[in-house]
TrEMBL record:
EGF-like domain mapped to chain residues: 32-71, 112-150, 157-195
Compartments, as annotated in UniProt: Secreted, Extracellular space, Extracellular matrix
The gene coding this protein: Egfl6_0
UniProt-listed InterPro entries: EGF, EGF-like_Ca-bd_dom, EGF-type_Asp/Asn_hydroxyl_site, EGF_Ca-bd_CS, Growth_fac_rcpt_cys_sf, Nephronectin_domain, NOTCH1_EGF-like
GO molecular function: calcium ion binding
Protein name stated in the entry: EGFL6 protein
Key words, A-Z: Calcium, Cell adhesion, Developmental protein, Differentiation, Disulfide bond, EGF-like domain, Extracellular matrix, Repeat, Secreted, Signal
Family: Belongs to the nephronectin family.
Lineage: Eukaryota, Metazoa, Chordata, Craniata, Vertebrata
Main location: secreted
GO BP, sorted A to Z: cell adhesion; cell differentiation
Pfam families in UniProt: EGF_CA
Stored SUPFAM superfamilies: EGF/Laminin (SSF57196), Growth factor receptor domain (SSF57184)
């Protein structure tokens, strides 16, 4: 089976036919599936879509059960959690629907963890981290573009000299570099390469 455009989060099953991993959709399995929009809904009360997955949480006064349903809890109602709670050994703890969120100082509301600035994010050298509420993703660095090469997606250098996206002077030569480009004035001219 050959999939010309590849299957980003899935596997190739037939000529240009991808079978997506759970949580992903699209012709090349490159789009996040919003499970919260599915019928029947996976969560009884509230649903938060995350990249490749989802999280359930309950309205105040309810406790999240392992199957995604919400059970009435007098103790949860008293604590007044933003995203529902759980009881551990008789003690009530508020929950956050994602690992990228943490309980705030009041121990009831959830605040975002900036994985990009805290160093928790893992992005390869040619990708930059973009923080989102409750998570993050890795985007190609400027001067790189996402391409499907030999079986997987990677950020590859954009040759600005070939794509004509450089700003070199008419009397300058464009030299491609990794992630960028340089301009050098032609013989008989002098200057920065942007001005000759």
């Amino acid at each position: 089976a050959v999939c010309g455009h590849g299957c980003k989060y899935g596997e190739c099953m037939g000529p240009n036919k991808c079978k997506c991993f759970p949580g992903f959709t699209g012709k090349t399995c490159n789009q996040d599936l919003n499970e919260c929009g599915l019928k029947p809904r996976p969560c009884e009360h509230r649903c938060m879509n995350t990249y490749g997955s989802y999280k359930c949480y309950c309205l105040n006064g309810y406790m999240l059960m392992p199957d995604g349903t919400c059970a009435t809890s007098r103790t949860c109602a008293m604590v007044n959690c933003q995203y529902g709670c759980e009881e551990v050994k008789g003690e009530v703890q508020c929950l956050c629907p994602s690992g990228g969120l943490q309980l705030g100082p009041n121990k009831r509301t959830c605040i975002d963890i900036d994985e990009c600035s805290s160093g928790q994010a893992l992005c390869s050298y040619n990708r930059r981290c973009v923080n989102t509420f409750g998570s993050y993703y890795c985007k190609c660095q400027l001067g790189y573009e996402l391409k499907y090469i030999s079986g997987h997606y990677d950020c590859v250098d954009v040759n600005e000299c070939v794509t004509n996206t450089h700003r070199c002077n008419l009397h300058a030569e464009c030299l491609n570099t990794e992630g960028s480009f340089k301009c050098k004035c032609k013989q008989g001219y002098r200057g920065s390469g942007f001005d000759c």
